[in-house]
Write a structure and sequence with these properties.
32% helix, 3-stranded parallel sheet, 6 helices, 237 residues, Purple Acid Phosphatase, chain A, domain 2, 3-stranded mixed sheet, 8 strands, globular
């Protein structure tokens, strides 16, 4: 795996490499694929038990005549630090549509000094950031044993637009937005409504109203905080 140059903006785990960043115009693109019913599986975090639940849900929908397409919205690796779990997550996720989160970006093309690439704010303790970086090192070790998986992760897109049903569309992202100068998702703006307002303002500032297919979809994006690396969290789709 080739490492990029160090970006000394903050300690590992405290900054977000610039290659994660996207301008809103990146979302003004043709749909990647079409789906009758779409499950967007966000923040799986390498939890095999949660993945199996999602697959059971998908199969149940199919039995009732409703085929479901799965879309994994980044950060699907994390707590899968043993070989068996890492292999299972990789096998299933990469057999479906997926975009990369910071975890997959660092596994596919690691960046010296980025750590987990989480960009934890100042109100998060140094101890938690250190644990997070240690988890990342353990996932690195698994990825290093299967370079073909790292190559596939490096090739994943950072965002996607999907047509759903008759005429509806959804835009998925797991990257960082380029915020206006002076704006920061800090402790005072870390709630879902605050982030929605921030992302909506960003979208409006980037897109020409009425002229872009990706009009302010960001109002519908709710931010979900990363679970503590001290324990695994099972999430449904």
């Amino acid at each position: 795996m080739t490492r990029l140059g160090h970006e000394p903006m903050a300690p590992p785990g405290r900054h977000c490499p610039m290659r994660y960043h996207d301008a809103a115009r990146a979302y003004d693109c043709a749909p990647w694929f079409e789906a009758k019913t779409l499950y967007v599986v966000a923040a799986l975090y390498g939890t095999v038990e949660a993945l199996e639940v999602v697959l059971v849900m998908q199969q149940a929908e199919s039995r009732h005549g409703c085929p479901v397409t799965l879309m994994f919205n980044g950060d699907f690796h994390w707590f899968d630090v043993d070989a068996e779990s890492f292999a299972r997550i990789s096998e299933v996720v990469l057999d479906h549509a997926a975009i990369c989160g910071n975890v997959e970006m660092e596994l596919g093309t690691p960046n010296d000094g980025a750590g987990c690439g989480c960009a934890y704010p100042d109100d998060v303790s140094d101890a938690l950031v250190l644990r997070s970086n240690r988890v990342m090192q353990r996932v690195y070790a698994q990825a290093a044993n299967v370079p073909e998986i790292s190559q596939r992760l490096a090739a994943l897109p950072m965002h996607a637009t999907i047509w759903i049903g008759k005429g509806a569309s959804a835009s998925c992202m797991a990257t960082r937005i380029r915020l206006p100068i002076g704006s920061s998702p800090s402790k005072t703006s870390n709630t879902a409504p605050d982030r929605c307002k921030l992302i909506t303002a960003w979208t409006k500032s980037e897109l020409d109203s009425g002229k872009r297919r990706s009009a302010p979809f960001a109002r519908h994006i709710l931010a979900c905080p990363r679970p503590s690396p001290s324990r695994s969290t099972v999430k449904s789709a």
